[in-house]
Amino acid sequence: MVKNVKGYSGYSACDKCHVDGEWHQKVTFQDTNAPLRTDAEFVEMTDADHHLGPSALQSLLLVSQFPLDYMHLACLGVMWRLLLSWLKGPLTLCLGTACINQISNKLVHLIPYIPREFARKPRALNEIMRWKATELRQFMLYTGPIVLKNVLSNSLYQNFLLFSVAMTTLVSQQLCGQLCFYAKQLLVVFVDNMKALYGKDMISYNVHGLIHLADDAHKFGALDNFSSFPFQKYTEMNKKN
Fold it and tell me: Residue 75: CB partners within 8 Å, gap ≥ 6?
């Protein structure tokens, strides 16, 4: 809304590149190597399919200086979709009751070992619909690689590790600067693998957006430098006001 461009369901929705959306039960973004957008193009509104009209903030470099937020993109977006695919997806992806219980038992078993620096302790998968962004982040970065091992099929597990390792790298103040472009390579492979493992309809705006996260991290530093997490505690306050 601030940029006055098409929303995530538009065929030219990507904020960072000129990928053309494709219909696979929903609008998806299959190309991981589309030409990047530039600030000059944004000011001149050269892509009529992307812009709804001029933005009041047109002069503020709304491509290069408008980073993606990994809380919504990766945690509430991609991690959430992966979990739902494993719990409620098609038969080729969906885990059986015994496997789901095994993961849940492992998560609950980890509770005494979770440091107090974490805002929340792990919860079982039967409470997945109430998981918060911090819980999805914890699963994506820390507990997921442990509790999914030897439960997910090897192909799904190895692909999840690409996602987890890349995101761990990009949120780390120490690793981000050194391994930023390596993380990007991992995320591109992860997204390409998603097409074969989960189907083309899985490559939504959030999944596609992962390939641009490393570029933003290269420019602005580790992902928590520009995420929405610090503002979450004010959500209820804003609702009341």
Answer: 133, 136, 137, 140
